[in-house]
Amino acid sequence: MKSPSLRNAYGEALVALGRKDDRVMALEADLGKSTQSVMFQTEFPDRYFQMGIAEQDMMSTAAGMALAGMIPFVHTFAIFATGRAYDQLRNSVCVPNLPVRICGSSAGLSDFGDGKTHQSVEDVALMRAIPNLTVICPADAIETTKMMEHMLDWPGPVYIRINRNDLPFVTPENEPYAIGKVSLLRQGRDVAIFAAGVMVSKALEAATTLEADGISARVINVSTIKPLDRDAVIRYAAGVNAIVTAEEHTLIGGLGSAVVEALRGVAHAPVEFVGVTDRFGTSAERYDILMERYGLTAEAIAAAAKTILRKNDK
Amino acid sequence: MAKPDEIRRIQRIACDLRANVIKMIGVGKVGHIGGSCSLAEIAAALYFSKMRIDPNDMKNKDRDRFLLSKGHTVPIQYAALIEMGVIPREHSSGLKTLEGNLQGHPDMKTPGMEAVTGSLGQGLSIGVGMALALRYKKSPARVYVAMGDGEIAEGQIWEAAMAAARYKLDSLTGIVDRNGFQATGATRDIFEIPNLVEKWRAFGWNALHVDGHDVAAVLNALDEAEATKGVPTVIVADTVKGKGVSFAENTSAFHNASLTQAQYDQALSEIAEAKRILQ
């Protein structure tokens, strides 16, 4: 059995890419253990660059490497990659559309102990707004491994949003993966749940509890948030009586917004969002209790679906 | 040491670059005149003497790279690329126009441009990344990054300075165009950075101090930078903002300004006279 750790899967996949292609380089800002890029350091010390705690410099340095023909992978916590180094990411990397891969680790609330300064509930909104940038968010270690296999050839920059913790396996091992696609994980007639990252497993749990109440829910894993597969979102949103989105992110500008943007101009069922209301994170002793406090649970997803269905009945 | 003929040739090209800048900005259109003119000798020395680049093969993987971190003065870089034939001369009328080919800051779509710069403070880091990658590929290419003396208030410059020293990037040369003025006034009044040469040395760089309009001194410093091993070199170049255009010299008034027809004519005639004296 494979490890359920996304960062281990990421680190191993990065090493595999490094073996396959010597254009792969890794940059690090003193968080190598949190991102597991340390695995790459061990095998390819001459393609690994410790840049110190200087994320802005690291981001532009990666741009320079890409301009010289390399495929650099930048590693730091999601909030620093997208917040502190935003302007460098935007101007040095995304304007010239360079093949830089930005690994934002400890995304969402997954760095539960460190609290609001190190958690990122707004990174997807920031990254989605930058032209040229692809935004992906794996739901489990299996998907993380598959995503990484596309990192040599995918054109332009990519932001990879990685959870710090072990996540349940939810994606089928032998199904092909493609950037830019959404995937149906569970069939259902009454409700469509669009989820990303850690919330995919919670959506599947919610579908099981809804089924016990006689409600049939389909679950769609949106692991590419941008470019969003609009046709598929419209297709999977059709024919149901309720649509729920679930994300470990602020409700402003993330997956929920992206799904509703995709549904613009077409008739669709009412939509409810599950995510972080307009506030920062906080410290907690465990990930699960923090997720509960912020309403990021299977129960919340099921309740959102039922609320819409009840309203429809009236 | 640079030869007298070579020095004279570069001095004359610097005049041509200034004239290109003035023609590009033209009459009644706002452009970065001051910081373009202060860099003319340095740009001429790099593009027409020091750098190993072939105008017909600007994508050669081993070409030397020039990054204009102070990207707002991109007219001087366009001027050099036009003079080399990399950018067609007729494109110069398209500066900062919707349908033109010359963006207000360096853009990869323009031939000969190496990076997107101009959000200040990022060029040196990009240069560090290029130099690291080129060294890994065992390329002999050198990387030159021009910075402004106002720009280096950006903390990222000093992050990159530390990284370049830590990685012993002797293929990287920084140039600080110390023209003493920035957008809204004299640098000493806005945000003075004292002991600049000593600061770079403290950050682990070989630091040279030259008159940035003295072509011989600039060429010699560039040669010394290349000969210096194990550390990056910075050339702190004292220059005159608006150099060569008398009414634009030593003022922030022509940092980003337009010219009247009379000013335009005067600027071109002063530059032509300066070139004539060099015959």
Explain this structure.
The complex is a heterodimer of chains A (314) and B (279). By secondary structure, chain A is an alpha/beta fold. Chain A has 13 helices and twelve strands. In chain A, the strands form two sheets. A seven-stranded mixed β-sheet of chain A has the order 2-1-3-4-6-5-10, sandwiched between helices. In chain A, helix 9 crosses helix 13 (298-313). Chain A is globular. Chain B has 279 residues and is α/β, with parallel strands linked by helices. Chain B contains ten helices and seven strands. Chain B has helices spanning 4-25, 34-37, 40-50, 74-84, 123-136, 155-166, 187-191, 196-202, 215-227, 261-277, and strands at residues 65-68, 143-148, 172-178, 181-182, 185-186, 206-211, 233-238. In chain B, helix 6 links the parallel strand 2 and strand 3 (172-178). In chain B, helix 1 (4-25) crosses helix 3 (40-50), helix 1 crosses helix 4 (74-84) and helix 3 runs parallel beside helix 4. The longest helix of chain B has 22 residues, at 4-25. The mean pLDDT of chain B is 97. Classes of the chains: A alpha/beta (314), B alpha/beta (279).
